[in-house]
Amino acid sequence: MKAIIILTDGAADYPIRELGNKTPLMAAHKPHIDRLAALGRNGLLVTVPPDLPAGSEVANLAVLGYDVHQVYQGRGVLEAAANGVHLAETDLAMRCNLICLEKGKFKNHSAGHISTPEAMVLISALNDELRDGVVSFYPGVSYRHLLVVKNGNPHLNLTPPHDVPGTEWNTVLPQPSAPEGKQTAERLTRLILHSQDILARHPINLERLAKGKDPANSVWFWSAGKRPQMQTFMQLYGKTGAVISAVDLLHGIGVYAGFRYIEVEGATGLWNTNYEGKAQAALAAIKHNDIVYLHIEAADEAGHEGDAKLKVRCLEDLDARVVKPLLEAAQTGPEPFAIALLPDHPTPCAVRTHTYDPVPFVIYKPGIPPDSVTAFDEESARHGVYGTLHNGEFIRALLFD
After folding, report:
1. At what angle do helices 56-63 and 75-82 cross, to 10 degrees?
2. Mean pLDDT across the stretch 339-356?
3. 178 CB burial (10 A radius; 0-12, 13-18, 19+)
4. Measured between alpha carbons, how far is 264 from 277 in angstroms, rounded to an integer?
5. Residue 57 to residue 54: CA distance in whole angstroms
6. Whole-structure pTM value
7. Domains plus CATH for the chain?
8. Cβ(278)–Cβ(8) under 8 Å?
9. What is the pLDDT of residues 198-219, one digit of tens each?
């Protein structure tokens, strides 16, 4: 049976006092998501092994059934693929965030969710002054960009900026994890320091400050790696696929998985994304593909902001504007299809970063008897028939059971 996976990034959480000691999934009014849970079979999924970073790059690869210990090479290489950046075998690619520092500390990982047009100007300015035949910056979307270092060494300890809000930035600068990484770590530190001088005087940032917006006053590097060796989804599972996302990381995973990438106008990766457009794109794509990976980032960004009420709103928008039309189509359309719903990882508002906790999931297949679960949340999923799954068990249950 064909299937749509609705990946609600970072939706899982911990109980929050202002929500009556409920998680956002428990507090949200989400009748269609809960109906999906009541119609389907539920469980928990471990998406991130304890010895790898709790990042979306690891978690989404795991959801799709890849052996992350074999294929994981960092986030940067996946975003390079999304942007059509060809990597030589000796190139080291990594995520380059535009961030906001305030009083010597990380204020946020996104420069106040800077717009893509503004960010492209800033990345171009950095390239003009810092590109030297060894390092090159490549523009992406909003705050998410790419750095490539020719002959860079991957033995590095790089701290994701969303992991350390409020931390003094000069305490978590790039460090070598082995002696051979020392030269690359020192180069990255110099780039960060030079970027702060360049960005502080750039007209884009002066204008943002004048308007009361957060400036993009530094770059920050993380998740470095080299080109991965991955089988396509067809080679692994004999299935075709498509991916719908506003985030380059997911596009890049799709490139290596052999998925068709579907761009949706108005998809932002934030809480103001085009939910309806994404849902309609998924319904169109399932007609021509075995699996559609529908990724929606909004709840994750709300978690990084530590905004519980916004996270609840994102989940309610997902319920009414995505899950409702997809569930109706799965039940009444001319060709039935399965629906799976799950986060890739938790992004608890209390810590504002990703954690390793298992995530709830539901798999609904028309005609398959449900289990006893009647709501979709972290606690209810513990009582589902699947128990706790690992490795490729989720994707095999969706595609073949």
Report:
1. 70
2. 97
3. exposed
4. 6
5. 8
6. 0.84
7. 3-72+230-399 (3.40.720.10), 81-225 (no CATH)
8. no
9. 999 999 999 999 999 999 999 9
